[in-house]
């Protein structure tokens, strides 16, 4: 099943997708701008273009697991997207994905500006890989 992941930052939203088998994950694009309406519509458009059967959105919990102001913004984004698409949307803990994405891009030799431009989509890749790994473990338990 093809799953699309979104990492919603304050200025940009990173997008990643997996293949039909849920084996490989790739970055798709970074949706720019502060305009939430445009970001919502672009995310809905991408879900259709990519044939996503499910959408996973990163939930930016605090390190102690509590919810801060960013969580409310992401929940509102998810609710807005639910009104535009006919696929299930799941919110998943995304703690440290942005930091991990920055480290990966740094190790690959990206410049500071390149890391800034692509960090959100790579955070979405990490979010989706973690999600798929958890789903695989859950299925293997039953």
Summarize the structure in short.
The chain is built from four helices and five strands; from the N terminus they run βββαβαβαα. The chain has 142 residues and is α/β, with parallel strands linked by helices. The protein has one domain: Nucleotidyltransferase, domain 5 (2-Layer Sandwich), CATH 3.30.420.
Description:
By secondary structure, this protein is of the alpha/beta class. The chain has one domain: 2-Layer Sandwich (Nucleotidyltransferase, domain 5), CATH 3.30.420.140. Helix content is about 50%, strand content about 20%. The protein is built from 4 helices and 5 strands. A 5-stranded mixed sheet has the order 3-2-1-4-5. Strand 4 (about 55-60), helix 2 (about 70-80) and strand 5 form a beta-alpha-beta unit. Helix 3 (about 95-105) crosses helix 4 (about 110-140). The longest helix has 30 residues, at about 110-140.
Low-confidence stretches: none
User: So, the CATH homologous superfamily?
Assistant: YqgF/RNase H-like domain
Report the radius of gyration as a whole number of Å.
14 Å
Molecular shape: globular
